[in-house]
Amino acid sequence: MIEDDASHCSVLLIDDEPFAQDIIAHGLENCLQHTLRFDTNPERAVELAREVDATVVLVDLRMPDIDGFAVTRRLRLDPATEHIPVILLSSEDDPDIKARAFAAGANDYLVKWPDPRELVARVRYHSGACVARRQRDAAFVSLRHSQEQLAASQWALHQAQKMEAIGQLTGGVAHDFNNVLQIIGGNLQLLKLMGGINEAGRARVDMALAGVERGAKLSSHLLAFARRQPLQAVVLNPGHLLREMDEMMRRVLGPRARVTTEIAPGLWSTTADPNQLNNVLLNLAINARDAMAGEGTLTIRAANLGAGSARPAGVAPGEYVMIEVADTGRGMPPEVLERAFEPFFTTKPTGQGTGLGLSMAYGFVKQSGGEIVLESEPGRGTSVRIYLPRSDAEPAQAEAPASAPLLGGLETILVVEDEEDVRSSTCALLSALGYYVLEAHDAGAAVDIVESGRHIDLVFSDVIMPGPVSALELAAIVRERLPHAQFLYTSGYAEGVLSHEGKVDASVNLLQKPYHPDALSARIRHLLRRSNTQQAAPAHLGLT
């Protein structure tokens, strides 16, 4: 049988006469659910009331050292006992004394010794009122806590929606910006290839190309924040990456700063894009340097976070590799901390920062399936913790970069691009390198060329294009009709097309816009050599 807490009485009796305990205990026999604590020392009344969690206190009025009035006042002054009902017991049935009792804070007044039925009724009444008040107060506390949680959830939802909206905007802007950069950069490179430019003109072209490179990095950061940067994720051990970056970190921080690296033994592996992770850590180090004005201590930690380990709010249960970058700089006030992940938000003077370092880190970590936690206080530095999910796979072995010469060829390349200016500059560039170039304004037109029977060695296609035929469908048709032809994608971003959960499959060949002619030439030659090798293998084995 489940007992009703509201009917249980916890009675404290303070009386200098021990026989009072027997009388009260006998009177409460019919109060089925009760506990009785007796003490002759009124000095301990407050302490005992807290100890037994009293719901009613019975106090004798006349005691040698401290009378019932004083005990009642003491109970009322203590926050833990101020609402416990107090019943004064007295042998005096005097209206003036009763008035003084109520003035001192008593809830009731009983003349010794009351009939047990009256005693039980009054104790039950006052105890029930005490329990009801406690339940009400607990409900209010619970309600306040729920309201605080709701407010925190609403704020978090608002922040997430704001960041998502900003991400969609920045992703679209970066995509169009990459196409513009490709047009500018492609035509500038064509000018250099055509020759006939004097030294002053060449210097100007090189300066403009340097500006294109800066724009490409800016766009890359925007895409990273928007989580639309295709990630070439591999299994890696962050400890190796941090050790390799140690010297670079020291150069970034300068001679007056101290760099401490703490990598836990047996660090787990995780799945991430090593180049992007490198960029994130480098940006965090640059932020730390600026916050410390070139001097202070930068601490880089890497540790395992087990399933049962304590974790910050917002980090889902699971096993993680935690990477922390902490500095001893000036720190951030709450209003700055709240906006720190927003793109272009910066407290640095004009020209000294783009405000994309933390936003890029935020986007990369989220796209990698992890969490990022920022903690900072003015004058106490800043800590950025990155939580990346653990991988049970073995780290991938890094491949040595190909040292192929950047040359053209005589093969046939089909360029598929809906942006006319981008297509024009790319076709002109490839033609200048010696290739025979076919062009199509969308995937549907490219399918017509493929099905016409034209010989094609490589298809270089944009990912996002209008029309009923997608780039993926075009690739499937090319594989079916031209099994020896290579396929190279290009895009300002490949969100939702080539990428799955932000990650591009290792089998997909992707060259991100804006691309440098050297990078385009190298990728095309690499793919064509691979194609020639694959076709030559059967003949070498006598299988033709």
Describe this structure as you would to a colleague.
The protein has helices spanning 19-27, 45-51, 68-77, 95-104, 116-194, 199-225, 238-253, 274-291, 334-337, 357-367, 420-432, 443-451, 471-481, 517-540, and strands spanning 9-14, 34-39, 56-60, 86-90, 108-111, 234-236, 257-263, 269-272, 296-305, 320-327, 371-376, 382-391, 412-416, 436-440, 458-462, 486-491, 499-500, 503-504, 510-512. It has 544 residues and is α/β, with parallel strands linked by helices. Strands 6, 7, 8, 9, 10, 11 and 12 form a seven-stranded mixed beta sheet that branches. A five-stranded parallel beta sheet has the order 2-1-3-4-5, sandwiched between helices. Helix 1 (19-27) links the parallel strand 1 (9-14) and strand 2 (34-39). Helix 5 packs across helix 11, helix 6 crosses helix 10 and helix 7 runs parallel beside helix 8. It catalyses: ATP + protein L-histidine = ADP + protein N-phospho-L-histidine.
The span between the termini is 88 Å
Q: Which bin fits the share of residues in helices?
A: 40-55%
Radius of gyration: 39 Å
Number of strands: 19
Overall, the morphology is elongated
Low-confidence stretches: 1-5, 399-406, 539-544
Helical segment tally? Answer: 14
Instruction: Return the average pLDDT rounded to an integer.
Output: 82
Strand content: 15-25%
**Major sheet attributes:** 7 strands, mixed
Short description, anyone?
The protein has 544 residues and is α/β, with parallel strands linked by helices. The protein has 14 helices and 19 strands. The longest helix is centred in the first third of the chain and has 79 residues, at 116-194.
